[in-house]
Every structure is written in C-alpha cells, then in structure tokens.
Amino acid sequence: MSNLSILILCGSSPRHLYVANALCKAGNPIAIVQETGSHWTLNKVLKLLKPSVFYRKASRWIRDRKRYSGNKEEAFFFAEQSAKLDQPDLVVSVPHINHPDVIKLAEQSQPDVIAVFGT
Fold first, then answer.
1. Nearest CA to 14 among 65, 75, 61, 94?
2. Which of 51, 54, 73, 114 has the smallest count of CB within 10 Å of its CB?
3. What is the spatial distance between Cα 25 and Cα 28, in angstroms, rounded to a whole number?
4. Which helix (H) or strand (E) element contains residue 62?
5. φ, ψ for residue 33 (rounded to 5)?
6. Which of 36, 19, 35, 25 is nearest to 115 (CA)?
7. DSSP character for 82?
8. Is 118 left (phi over 0), alpha (psi -120 to 50) or beta?
9. Are the beta carbons of 73 and 15 closer than 8 angstroms?
10. pTM attached to this predicted model
11. 24-77: per-residue pLDDT in tens?
12. Are 111 and 92 in contact (CB under 8 A)?
C-alpha cells in the first residue's frame, strides 16, 4: 500500500489525528482535509431550537462530557505526547466537508484512495 496516494478527510480529535498519522505512514498522503466548523445560519439556529433537536443535542453533550474530560482519549492514542499530526504542512482547512474546495482538491489530485474518518 505504500505507493498509493491518499487524500485524508478527518476531524481534529486525538483519535482522528492518530488514524491520519497511521495513513500518512502507510501511503503517500496528498492532503489532510479538516473541517474548521460549520457556519451558523438562521435556519440552522432555528432547527437547533426545536425541542426534540435541542433535547437530543443537550443530552448527548451531558452524556459525553465525562468521556472527554481529562484528555483520556489523547493519553490513549498519544501516551505522554500531545495529540498532533506528524505532517501538519498537509492540512487543508475547509468550513465543512462538502465544501467545493474539497471536490476541487480531489479532482485535481486524483488520489488512489480517499479515506474518510470522523467528519
């Protein structure tokens, strides 16, 4: 697999950085595409304020709060080091994963593999 060109689409949590680093070592990475976060629109805010959606988001935040406290995930994947990409120069930041720049990058680079994880 070491000769395959890889376009990596991932998040920025420690587990995503770990997988991106492993893919970079296993192949020929072209870019690591990460979302900077979605932009807020009036429609999105109105949707989030619907009681069923608000309850689901709030309960998930409360449920997952304990899981993410204390950097346990970072310690699991990176031991004593801080979570970081081995090749930060390959990062391409986009507002959201369906942004036209991602399609343009994929069309221009023609990777052998597009790996999607955690977006």
1. 75
2. 51
3. 8
4. helix 51-68
5. -90, 125
6. 19
7. P
8. left
9. yes
10. 0.77
11. 999 999 999 999 876 778 888 888 889 998 889 888 877 766 666 667 778 888
12. no
> Which residue's entry shows tokens 């990475």?
29
Place 119 in a pLDDT band, splitting at 50, 70 and 90: low
* Sign of torsion over alpha carbons 111, 114, 31, 19: negative
Residue 1: pLDDT above 60? Answer: no
Separation of first and last alpha carbons in the chain: 24
Q: State the Cα–Cα distance between residues 78 and 94, nearest whole angstrom.
A: 25
d(CA 82, CA 88): 14
Residue type, 90: L
Identify the residue whose tokens are 């507002």: 95
Strand residue runs (E) in the chain: 5-10, 28-35, 91-94, 113-117
Give the structural domain span for 15: 5-117
State how many domains the chain has. 1
